[in-house]
Recover the amino acids of this structure.
């Protein structure tokens, strides 16, 4: 995938009490993801459903974005479309300067393995594979050698060193979700997409999972996009997008990324 990406600059100015500009500096913003007029339709005629309706936005490299909205609003459809899982009816998705859906199915599968990390609510672990095998599965499917240093770092971060040989049914829900996060991070993706990653967990485990995702966001400068119904999780993001009936109804920046 080309490493070119769109960048733009803003000038942040500081003013004194008299309204005179005292200093200014330029901030360069690197765009990792851009969505243009994205539409996704299911059915036809009287049964036509627009899951996404002319959605456009962009995301900075290293940004933590939360997407919120009621059930059926199109959140999951959006994240699957961003991740190369579900082709849009119309519109474009650009990641790191590349038109995602201009690729054929074979290259799209490679794109998903190498450049996107997906974390699901229901873990989606392979029951007959242990922790290490589940985490390294995307690398092995790609026919590449496992980066042992990265694997050991992830096992340490995820607190799974003493569980590395365990099967999924020998793990708690929180531990299974940590494995799923490890799998998503193993290929060092440009973007991590998490669809209700805490939906099956209690509040303590939920915050632990969010902390791990936030750590990956800062430690590896990975762009993080999280779908959530939990307002307390959304408020930890840099930015919140609200979706209703397949359309963006609100886009608020909570904090500027340092």
């Amino acid at each position: 995938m080309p490493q070119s990406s769109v960048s733009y600059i803003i000038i942040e100015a500081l003013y004194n009490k008299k309204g005179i500009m005292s200093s200014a500096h330029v901030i360069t913003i690197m765009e990792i993801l851009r969505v243009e007029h994205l539409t996704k339709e299911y059915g036809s005629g009287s049964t036509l459903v627009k899951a996404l309706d002319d959605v456009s936005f962009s995301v900075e490299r290293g940004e933590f974005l939360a997407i919120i909205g009621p059930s059926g609003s199109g959140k999951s459809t959006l994240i699957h479309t961003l991740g190369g899982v579900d082709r849009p009816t119309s519109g474009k998705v650009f990641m790191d300067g590349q038109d995602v859906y201009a690729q054929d199915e074979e290259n799209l599968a490679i794109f998903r393995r190498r450049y996107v990390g997906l974390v699901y609510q229901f873990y989606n672990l392979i029951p007959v594979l242990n922790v290490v095998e589940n985490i390294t599965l995307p690398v092995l499917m790609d026919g590449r050698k496992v980066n042992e240093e990265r694997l050991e770092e992830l096992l340490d971060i995820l607190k799974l060193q003493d569980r590395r040989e365990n099967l999924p049914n020998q793990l708690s829900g929180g531990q299974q979700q940590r494995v799923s996060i490890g799998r998503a991070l193993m290929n060092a993706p440009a973007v991590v997409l998490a669809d209700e990653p805490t939906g099956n967990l209690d509040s303590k485990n939920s915050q632990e999972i969010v902390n791990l995702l936030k750590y990956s966001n800062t430690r590896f400068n990975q762009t993080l996009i999280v779908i959530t119904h939990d307002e307390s999780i959304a408020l930890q993001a840099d930015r919140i997008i609200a979706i209703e009936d397949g359309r963006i109804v609100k886009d608020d920046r909570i904090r500027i990324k340092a």
Remarks:
- The first strand starts at residue 6 and ends at 15.
- Residues 203-219 form the longest helix (17 residues).
- Confidence is low (pLDDT under 50) at residues 1-13.
